[in-house]
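During the first year of the project, the team set up a workflow for recording each protein of interest as an amino acid sequence followed immediately by a discrete structure-token representation. This format lets reviewers and collaborators read both layers of information side by side without switching files. As required by the reporting guidelines, we include two representative entries from the current panel. The first entry is reproduced here exactly as it appears in our internal archive.
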Amino acid sequence: MTRPSTDGGPPTFSRRSYLAAGAAALSATAGCLESLGVTNGDGANQNGDGNGDGAAVERVDNVDSALLDGKVVVLTRGSETAGEIDPETTDTPIQDGLDFLGANRGGELRLPPASVFERGAIRPYSDTAIVGFGPGVSEVGVPPSTDGIRFDRDAGVNRIRLDGFALNGPGPGEPSGVAIRHSGGNTQDLSVGRLLFWGWNDSVYRVESGTGPFQCRHDHLTVYDCDAGDADGLFEFRSSYGPANWFGTVAAYPTATESSRDSTAVFTRGGTQHIDQLTLGGTVGPAVHQTGGSQFHAEGIHWEPVDQRAVPEAIVRLLGRGPATIGNIKQATGTARYVYEVGTDPESGTPPARKRLGSYYRVGTEARLSENVVNLTAPNDPDSPSFYDGPAVDVTVTHEHPGTGGFRALGDAGTGVDTP
């Protein structure tokens, strides 16, 4: 599998071009490899249904050579040597490795500095990790209509780590699964480092209704050439629960080649999501669409769409009773009617409440608003007021109901003290 290079070069991948960098990276960990190894699968399986037969796992003495030769390497817990899997000999090299780790009390699966094709969804076990050389070096591809990584074990899984690889979908013109899907059990303490998603024609991260991942951290997620125009969002949180989930930097540059529609970046119905920085380009539509009782916080949003297919009602839509905090929004390009829409949840009919709308500013001449900054489409719950950091003139009230005093503009509050 290949993907277009981020620097505009041809979509090629050369394993050997990374030999020098790979050897240097591995030399730093060579000392700890001597104490690791492969067991025979007789140990207790704490994860339930790993087969542990080791059919595709062979002992390997030189981990560096195995990885640089394109093999998948497994490092099991408390073992003495490592094991390798040749992707040319199995349809599911990564799942084979995870099954082996799951039957041997966990461990780490290392991806080579190459492309690995997996003909099925990857289903991690507790206490396992999938680690590559970096998103521009290690790549995992899946066929059409197939999820990339799926968390669906009935008992749930804990303490999973994903880091340093690209997770590629089938690309343009093909039906797609979801890159990462939570659809069963409750995932706890998932740790995601640097991942890149390319070529998915659906959501790239989805939490299905009825499951609630919690205490999950995602450091740096990048989305290139994915089309969620037919989905609720690139990142979808459909469940009503799932606390304490954190995202560092999320950078998304979707395309509309399949759906001919802009993609919403984040859709949330429930649970807790905290995003430090959300930077958006491509054919992005709304940055955030919040409904239900979700607890949402985005500290900074950078909105810079290219080739818009439609003008969104608002860059950020905050509907219903769930608390939401937006630190600030910068608009660099594109047109929107409003920056914020604050209104009633269409599913439950509950009025808006508990919103904190941060400052908005435009840069350059290509950023436009056709109406105003804030559109208040329903009276705010007076017992759970909402606040906007700017002046009252930035707020347009488009509902026709009696006011409640529940929405307040803070930009006109206080006494100016900067006059000499």
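The second entry, processed by the same pipeline in the following quarter, appears below.
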Amino acid sequence: MSDSFLDGNLVYLRLPDIERDVVNGDWYRWFNSDEITKYLYHGVYPNSLERQIEIVKSNLERGDTVLLSVIDRESEKLCGVVSLKDIDLINRVAEVTIVMSRGDYVKNAPLEALALITQYGFEKLNLAKINGGHHIGLWRWVNKVELLGYRLEGYIRDTHRRYGRVFDSVRVGVRADDYFRIVEERGGEYLPDDIEGLLADRREENICERLGSLIEELYR
């Protein structure tokens, strides 16, 4: 019997298995990789197997966090982790996070993983809003998640200092009303089977940079 919790066409999400995913996997090495952590807060200090086990155990014990492993259906390998954190069932909000491995996964796996955890948040946890944050270097990803209803909601200056430079970040969010509207408009599908067709409609403009410029102009 599959231990899948949330099923997609490209990936499925399940509870992390410390033995399979951490001890016998390379999960902890992701956070030592400059390629993977380039746009994250991770990667400043070295990570270890023991430390990763502690982090995963701690997150699994938290009542305000749902942490799931992203499994590539084709290879049955762990290719990422996704979570809803700081779940507030009074105000019905949560923070979404996603980290993927070095790219050895099926195309569009990150978008489907995000769609699955977002769908779970609205349809099972009855959330009203899901928020997230991104380094401005991930503006192409921001354009992709807009297709899932995630809109730019804020621009924060000087959040990342690395490589001798200072970088900004953006806040995004999707409301339950927008989620259910998208599902209705797409005939009951949140993320259509034809992902490439959907992506053909994404913006090409760097809207993160545009938002930053608009805010700078506002205070001149």
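For the second entry, the following points were noted during internal review. The longest helix spans residues 109-123. DSSP finds nine helices and eight strands in the chain. Both points are flagged for discussion at the upcoming steering committee meeting.
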